[in-house]
Amino acid sequence: MNPLAIERANERLRQAAEGRTEPAVVEAALERARHQVESLAETAAQLEATLPDRVGEAVQTGLRQEVLPVARHLAEVRGLSANTVRRLERLEGDLLAERHARVDDLALIVDLIVSGWQGVDERLARLERALGADEGAIVYRIEDRRSGT
After folding, report:
1. pLDDT tens digit sequence for 67-83
2. Cα separation of 38 and 44, whole Å?
3. What is the residue extent of each domain of the chain?
């Protein structure tokens, strides 16, 4: 074997040995790691026990804060739409009453016109009877009147 290669290997072993930590330091680090893992396990168990309740409370609080205003808005919209329906029904009733009043007015106008024309017919009939009773009018010729006869 080459003595130079052996010396290089020994040098590497010395460097590796210098970087090693003492077993007491390793044991202390392991003990700290065990305590931290145990603490983490306890915290996880506490979270596992309390987290569902806390999430449920947070959801309920959020719903109360967000849903109640929406419910109020919905109630307001429902009230406004009911008010609109009532107003439309009132307008429909007013329009129907107005339509009936116009039909009544039209019937009255038709009656007045019919009675007026009946009066005209009666007068014309009286005039015709009066003229028909004399059996005609006397007709004078203008030439006969001028001659004096």
Report:
1. 888 888 999 999 999 99
2. 10
3. 3-95
